[in-house]
Amino acid sequence: LLLAVLLCAPWRALHGAPLAELSGDQDFQLFLQRNLEFTRKIRGDVAALQRLVCDTLQLCKEDELLLVRQDLDIAQAPLEQCHRRTFQAETCFSQIRAGLRIYHGSLATIRALLPGHAGLVETLQLDMANLSSNIQQQMEDLGLATVTYPTENQDPLPTFSSHFHHQVGGFFILANFQRFLETAYRALRHLTSL
Question: Do the record's keywords include Glycoprotein (predicted)?
Answer without folding.
Answer: yes
